[in-house]
Amino acid sequence: MTAYDELRKAPFNLDEPAILWVRDVYASLDVDDKIGQLFILIMIGTDEEEFKRIGTLKPGGVTRFFTPDLDFERRVISDLVSRSKVPPIISADLEGSRHSFAFGTPVLGQLGLAAVDDVEATERSSEILAREGRAMGVRWSFTPVIDINAAFRSPIVGTRSYGSDVDKIERHAVAHVRSLQRNGVAATAKHWPGEGYDDRDQHLVTTTNPLSVEAWKKTFGRLYKTLINEGVLAVMSGHISFPAYVRSKVPDADLEAFRPASVSRLLNVDLLRNELGFNGLIVSDATPMGGLSAWGHHTETMPDIIANGCDMILFSDAPEKDMAAVKAAVEDGRITSERLEAAVLRVLALKAHLKLFQSSDVLPEAAEARRLLAHPDNVAASREFIGRSPTLVKDVQGIFPLHPTKTKRVLLVDGGIIHPLIPQPLKFVLPELLEKEGFEVTIDRPDIVPSPDDFDLVVYALGDESLLVRGRIFVDWHRMGGGGLFKAMYRPWTNIPSIMISFGHPYHLYDAPRVPAYINAYSTMDSVQEAVVDCMLGRKPFVGVNPVDPFCGLEDAHF
After folding, report:
1. Is 276 exposed, middle or buried (0-12, 13-18, 19+ CB in 10 A)?
2. Listed residue (194, 99, 106, 190) closest to 138, CA to CA
3. Using CA atoms, how far apart are residues 158 and 328, in angstroms rounded to an integer?
4. Which of 147, 285, 304, 444 is an active site residue?
5. Following DSSP, what letter does each residue of 72-106 receive, concatenated?
6. What is the tens place of the pLDDT at every residue in 84-129?
7. Is position 285 annotated as part of the catalytic site?
8. Where are the alpha helices (DSSP H) in 185-336?
């Protein structure tokens, strides 16, 4: 059986014209071209000279973090495509929430959809993401996240997963993959071999999947096998170790048992390819992450990624040096010619499957893009799903529904909206929304000591969605109050009705177990804030269901 015979099988399922295109393109590539195809480089910001430099490196693909300027974005992508010998594949994290296009439809993230718990809502939301992504040239999404929300302190799984229940994750992940790929966008199951039981962040440290092999098979193994059977086109290999599996093969393994999956032949080839039968493309997680850089220097790990079973390398801080390191490994045999061929062919097969050899399938016409983006039908559908996501976790004092005649004077303790790619916190629209309803809203200041003589209600608004490079998410009382040591320790709810609303991380009751009313809303988008206000005022019911244990196992948090 030849390498091309493998490409005729699932998930690529290439027909003869597509196989012929792959053959012809592969035959036209020299060694430098082939190595370029193994890299997905990052395009962030607005420096067009830097983007041109990226294009000269002839990468197999790029990941774009889009600005709000639609015309600029289309010009940048169009220019990259026109300069490329082989059509690059444009990828993005189509995760919804704050990853939604600024010029597109606001779409719930995965945990918000898990709170809605309607597979049709997940399918429709994924369809919106796919169609709007295609309007911008995106043909590969690094979703769905199929990590399990098991460790509530984890700052990186949080709102990105479909929760903690394997059955629920499976239902929604299948819908997600099916809808993306039906609409011409390759899906990616991540983060192999499974994240969520280690409460650390692989952006900072190599994390560990601590499960036994048997427990893993019933959880992550089941999820990956289900998506492989569904035809998922890609898997992202994380900087996550799986010592139980390694030791099942190498009983005396010590440090080697904790090798990140991204550079582990045992995990990528033996387990994912041979045991689970995955025939699609394996891409590493982002290589600048601490989970890989703490393991080895990039001139060593870049060749190791390809040699140990990944077909593509995601991101590079020094692409010229990293490509040179891979080329040196090809020349000295650390990466065999067979391994290089297999990796490049899978990259080309993904492009052929997506029909990127047809120029119309790379970037649609501008008029068609404008028609698709933020289409009224999509906005209306997504808004309906968003309205069903806010989850009332508890209200032990019967504070809801709110009305300005009962609690007119509101003190808002604002934690700000924190996003890893935005240097300064964004502002909530919640104060303006409440004022429109007749409430008098005061934003907390260091000089304010909450008193029932001055306020009828205290509202805490927290905006930490899943974060990168922050080891923990917690209620930062000192920063929010801004009033020093003693104000940070003061809790007003013993004499003023108080509400805590998390527009992100669903586990803040761990730091505030006795707050009398608590809402999880899963996303900081303006449309989600609007939905929460509707629910708090009683115009709409709270119908979201907890996709995780928001009480963090604490009995007293229920009261």
Report:
1. middle
2. 99
3. 40
4. 285
5. HHHHHHHHHHHT-SSPPEEEE----GGGS-TTS--
6. 999 999 999 999 998 899 999 999 999 999 999 999 999 999 999 9
7. yes
8. 213-216, 222-230, 243-249, 265, 290-293, 298-307, 319-332
